[in-house]
Amino acid sequence: MSLFARLTQDLTAIESYPISPHDMRAITPLIAWPRDPTDASLVELSDGRFVRVRETPQPTPGFGDRIVEGTPELQGDGHWYQTWQIIPPDLVSLKDAVRRRVNELEDGKISNRELARGLAQSPAAPRPRTQSVMAKADEIRGRVETATTAVELAAILAELEAF
C-alpha cells in the first residue's frame, strides 16, 4: 500500500501525513488523479506538493517499548521516508508487562521454556498449576510491586523467564 504526504507550500516540510489518494482528490477536486499516482504524476499534477513516502522496516522493540510512526523525512536521494520512534516504557508500564508475563506463566498459557526463549510458534499445551509455579508467581508479584527501576524489573523478568 502506498503512503502519501502533502508538503508545505515551500516544499521543505510535511504538512499532512498520512494522506490517501482519496484525500488528494478531495483537496484538489479539479485534478484528475490516476488510480495509482506515480512519482512523476505527483510532481506534475500537484507542483510537488504531494509526495510518495517510502516505507521503512519497523524497528524491533525492547521489553516494554512502544513503536510509533514519526514524521517522514527527506533523505539525500530526494525521496521522503517513513520514520519510527521507540518510546521507552515508564515504570508503571513495565510493571504491568511483567505482571502479564507472571500471569501467563501461572495460568499455564505458555511453558516457562517458551517464555524464556520466545520460541512459541503455536499455542503451548496448558501447564498444570503446580505449587512451585504458584509460589514463584506470588513471590515475583511481591518483588514487582516494590521494584523502583527498570533495571530491577529486567532482572525480575530474566529470573522469571529462567524459571
- List the total number of helices: 6
Unreliable residue stretches: 116-128
Question: CA-to-CA gap between the ends?
Answer: 43 Å
Portion in strands = 15-25%
Count of DSSP strands: 7
Summarize the topology:
Blueprint lengths: L2 E5 L6 E6 L1 H7 L11 H8 L3 E5 L11 E4 L3 E2 L5 E2 L2 E4 L3 H17 L4 H6 L13 H16 L3 H13 L1
Parallel strand pairs: 3-6
Antiparallel strand pairs: 1-2, 1-3, 4-7, 5-6
Helix pairs in contact: 3-5, 3-6, 5-6
Written description of the protein model:
With 163 residues, the chain is α+β, with helices and mostly antiparallel strands. 41% of the residues lie in helices and 17% in strands. The strands form 2 sheets. A 5-stranded mixed beta sheet has the order 2-1-3-6-5. α3 packs antiparallel against α5, α3 (91-107) runs parallel beside α6 (150-162) and α5 (131-146) packs antiparallel against α6 (150-162). The radius of gyration is 24 Å and the shape is elongated. The protein starts with a strand and ends with a helix. Residues 116-128 have low confidence and may be disordered.
Question: Could you provide a short overview of the structure?
Answer:
The protein has helices at residues 21-27, 39-46, 91-107, 112-117, 131-146, 150-162; strands spanning 3-7, 14-19, 50-54, 66-69, 73-74, 80-81, 84-87.
What keyword list fits this structure?
two-stranded antiparallel ribbon, five-stranded mixed beta sheet, 163 residues, alpha+beta
